[in-house]
TrEMBL record:
Protein name, entry field: Membrane protein YndD
Signal peptide span: none
InterPro entries named among the record's database cross-references: Spore_Ger, UPF0353/GerABKA_families
Primary residence: membrane
Subcellular location: Cell membrane; Membrane
Recorded GO CC terms: plasma membrane
Superkingdom: Bacteria
Keywords: Membrane, Transmembrane, Transmembrane helix
GO biological process: spore germination
Length: 483
């Protein structure tokens, strides 16, 4: 049952505007009103939404200063041609103040935690910055573990995120452009880039695509990624999502653009190439020998994560003569009595591992780790004893899973997981020829794929000699800086 709200003694010239605001907010019960009599004949009404507005700020920084206004100030306020300047300089000097004309503008401010101030005999309507900021503290990144370097991560408050970038990159050319996205529930976003380093055409293209978004509400940068990417059918991500400020700063220095969204702890980096998904800030924090070794390890792991199960299927099913005799006999002995062919073995174990991985992610962290370890051991031992799969297949699937975890970009790891199943089908159908055809198709797709007009395979295709020193090998910083 909804109880009727108490009618306020509002002057007629403000009642219509107040009712229009209430109707736009569906007469919700968390809309609060506060009447204030200022002097003898000035009436004021404060409207705010309970829960997202700082009540103490309304009482101490708005209500009390209004009540303390003298008659001389009231006369000057009524006579001035700029009420906003007078209120800001003389009445509420500590308050962020803006004006609005329509009720829709007022509602948008209320939904963002601001309060509306209506004054009798004053034609200007005010929005006051009374938002309540309740944010979690800055912690270590969870999805991108930092081995060496800064340990801070983005949070859901966009102002805190831009300040983190400013702290890591105190550069006078750092530009932060703010805007709103969403046709109904408007959310603040920020485009961050380095002036003089970013490509102007790319920046204009990014801004144009964002301005074309007409979705009612955007909850995370992942939704923006899907709405502005070049090729929605491609399994490869054309942007990078990161929660690390130092990684974001590293990409900004390369001329890329970062997008931050209010309510999302992830920054969206664009444009990117395939090579960018294999980079990590730790590559540059360590000496170049270590960085090059780790980079090579990642590329090798990517090959294993993508091709190992399909190569095993092709060898066992079609090309047994290519396997060394001793190893072939060992595989044959391990597969003796197994009920399924190698392709079904691989499919069963890959799907089982994906289920375990997803279950471990969704469950609470202590329970998820237990499920991942115990579940993998118990199920792996059980399927081998039941002769559903061979022990060699358990090794292949385990190596494939470990290799996929070495990639610093989660999104590219997921892409390899999807393509792995397609290559397994190709290997079961045509053997090594199917794998080669699949590799050619993937390479052809990558060469034609672009990210905001930039080739996805740069700096390899097309070749950019100045950037080749930071692909598979990471050259010493002294050499890189001289180029």
């Amino acid at each position: 049952m909804k109880f009727p709200k108490k009618e306020l003694n509002i002057p007629e010239n403000l009642k219509y505007f107040k009712n229009e605001i209430v109707n736009l907010l569906s007469n919700s019960d968390d809309i609060k009103y506060k009447e204030i009599s200022v002097g003898n004949n000035l009436y004021s009404l404060i409207i705010y939404i309970d829960g997202i507005t700082d009540i103490n700020k309304i009482e101490l920084e708005i209500t009390l200063p209004l009540q303390k206004m003298q008659n001389d100030e009231l006369k000057e306020l009524k006579a001035t041609t700029s009420p906003e300047s007078f209120i800001s300089n003389h009445v509420l000097p500590d308050m962020q103040i803006s004006t609005f004309i329509t009720a829709k503008e007022a509602v948008q401010g209320l939904l963002n935690g601001k309060s509306v101030l209506l004054l009798n005999e004053i034609d200007t309507f005010f929005l006051l910055g009374s938002q309540k900021f309740e944010n979690r503290s800055i912690e270590q990144p969870e999805s991108e573990v930092s081995i060496r370097g800064p340990r801070d991560a983005f949070i859901e408050e966009i102002v805190s995120n831009t300040s983190l970038i400013r702290k890591h990159l105190p550069n006078q050319n750092l530009v932060i452009e703010n805007g709103q996205i969403g046709s109904v529930a408007k959310k603040k976003f920020s485009l961050v880039y380095l002036k003089g380093v970013v490509d102007k055409n790319t920046l204009e293209e990014i801004s144009f695509r964002i301005n074309c978004i007409t979705t009612d509400n955007i909850q995370d940068t992942g939704e923006i990624e899907q709405l502005i990417e070049d090729n929605v059918l491609s399994p490869f991500p054309q942007m990078i999502s990161t929660e690390r400020p130092d990684k974001t700063v590293a990409f900004l220095q390369e001329g890329k653009v970062a997008l931050l969204l209010q309510g999302s702890p992830f920054a969206l980096i664009m444009p990117v190439s395939l090579n960018d998904h294999f980079k990590s800030p730790e590559d540059y924090y360590n000496r170049w020998h270590v960085g090059s070794l780790i980079r090579n390890l990642r590329y090798s792991s990517a090959f294993v994560a993508l091709f190992l199960p399909s190569i095993y299927i092709a060898m066992v099913s079609f090309h047994q003569g290519m396997i060394p005799t001793t190893l072939a006999l060992s595989i044959a002995g391990a597969r003796e009595g197994v009920a399924f062919p190698s392709f079904l073995e691989a499919i069963i174990m890959e799907i089982t591992f994906e289920i375990l991985r997803e279950a471990g992610v969704r469950l609470p962290r202590p329970v998820g780790q237990t499920i991942g370890i115990v579940g993998g051991l118990v199920i792996g031992d059980a399927v081998v004893r039941a002769q559903i799969v061979s022990p060699i297949m358990i090794i292949v699937v385990a190596l494939t899973a470990l290799a996929s975890f070495t990639l610093p970009s989660v999104s590219i790891s997921v892409s390899f997981r999807m393509l792995r199943f397609l290559l397994m089908i190709a290997a079961a159908t045509l053997g090594l020829y199917g794998i080669i055809l699949g590799f050619i198709m993937i390479s052809t797709h990558l060469v034609g794929l672009r990210s905001f007009g930039h080739y996805y395979t740069t700096p390899v295709a097309p070749i950019l000699k100045k950037e080749l020193g930071d692909v598979i090998f990471r050259l010493p910083l002294t050499i890189v800086k001289k180029k």
